[in-house]
Design brief:
globular
Length: 253
Amino acid sequence: MKLILPKNIYSIIFAESLKNYDNVEIIFKEASLIATSLQENTSAVGLIPSLELSQHKTFFVSNKAGISFDGLLSNSYFYLSKNDNRQLGQISLRGDVSINEVILSKILFKERFSSDVEISLDTKQAVNKEQNTLVVGDENIFSWEYGMGLSFSDQIAEMLDLPYVNFVFASQDKEAIEKFNLLIIEIDAVIEDSLSEIFESIDYPAAVKEHIKNNFSTVYYELTPNETEALEDLFKLLYYHGIITDIFDIKFV
């Protein structure tokens, strides 16, 4: 089985939990490219940003696993400028940016702060801490003050009053999802039980590992009815804001 994942600490933790399966080939790609890869490799399973389903409605989706958050842990963090001249209505996006951050940051500021924001993509190598920035992925760990940003996932979860389903496992091949589901039975418990061993095998700062371990109750690898409801509510939110024109059924397997 070919499994395509974004490269961030949470997906790497997941990948490490599968390392004893010889029949699983893991490939890492930028989050925004994985759905396209699934169109080209129809038998692969990919961990895609959840809102990609609005553009790939034919994908089959695992009802057993994904990556969701509802607290301090997140794949994305806001860093608000301390510059007195900052404007809340301007947000720069950096890192492994996907459709989720582009769309949901605009909705979040509209819903929670009654503010229309301008979104721009910051591709410069140098970090500019004089601007309001949403940083996605492991750049939070290696280029910013990790743990000091505002959890994007926590803000979305509070807005929904449900966990934020950041990533889902999808494929064009229903049978591939069925086989994948058999690999990840009780994946939350499997990962939690082996977390210390996983952390020994991955190259991240000790303080980051400790922070994740202390807040591990706010990240979920299993999809329960709570998460499937949250995912459906995300698309209702997109419909309400006129981003999609119809509510569609997710093809859970």
